[in-house]
């Protein structure tokens, strides 16, 4: 299957006929769900996957399928990474840099969603600190390892439409906290980070993009009650334009397909500094409540530069 790909395309279909032997790929969040499936399909096509996870015991069990499916020299190495702790992030990045082995692709897959208000070990709001700042520091600290022609794929979400980033109050010190409002901020930040990383590195042949995997039932939704989930689906369907299909859950292989497509198969110039969904580049859509597309604010270059500067200020490190 060479395309066209869409919402129901799986990872195996995206990579049909693709040989990744000799490629080295970093995937964060390989202890469950999309991260495990992403690592599995990449290793099954010959890639050496470096899988990052907070709980290595859990990751070892979860990734047995990755090792079982590895072919053509593909394999898996695990590294410890707690994105909610900059000490852990810096230790992970420093070890990777010390090893000196380049990456052909980095997929920032790990994250948390719609959790109760809390703070990371560094005092950042949990979702912004984990989903954005942890990856921001990790990726920039290993930027020297990005090989020419390599890519960065940030897992964002359609949830970026819940809210723009708030650079004046990123930790909700003065604004009312809502679980999905905070999630939206962090997912918008994932897109803006990709936009600015792409601008800074594309002259060296390194591109960055952000993706929405789709609605998938994984551990990411651990904080969502069945009632909240049902209400969310009801609201999505109510906002659908006339004639549009109702919301449908994706399988995990379907959910991981866009990450793999954007990282390996899609032309780099097509996806660089863009937002992708259902294995294609999303259209800009600013209609309130509309299910598809990407908001203008998430791709704004000036906004992306401002977030970068604020992120450097917050983590106390310039890149």
What CATH calls the topology is Rossmann fold
Uncertain stretches: none
Alpha-beta classification: alpha/beta
Strand-residue proportion = 5-15%
What is the makeup of the main sheet? 8 strands, mixed
Q: Could you state the CATH homologous superfamily?
A: NAD(P)-binding Rossmann-like Domain
Biggest β-sheet: strands ordered side by side in the sheet:
3-2-1-4-5-6-7-8
> Cα distance, first to last residue?
41 Å
Share of helix among residues?
40-55%
How are helices and strands ordered from N to C?
HEHEHHEHEHEHEHHHHEEH
Number of domains: 1
Number of helices: 12
CATH architecture: 3-Layer(aba) Sandwich
Description:
It is a single chain. The protein has a single domain (16-313), classed as 3-Layer(aba) Sandwich (Rossmann fold), CATH 3.40.50.720. It is globular. It starts with 10 loop residues before the first helix and ends with a helix. With 319 residues, the chain is an alpha/beta fold. It has helices at residues 11-14, 33-44, 56-62, 64-69, 86-99, 126-141, 179-201, 226-239, 252-255, 257-265, 268-271, 301-315, and strands at residues 24-28, 48-53, 75-80, 103-108, 146-155, 207-212, 275-277, 280-281. The relative contact order is 0.15.
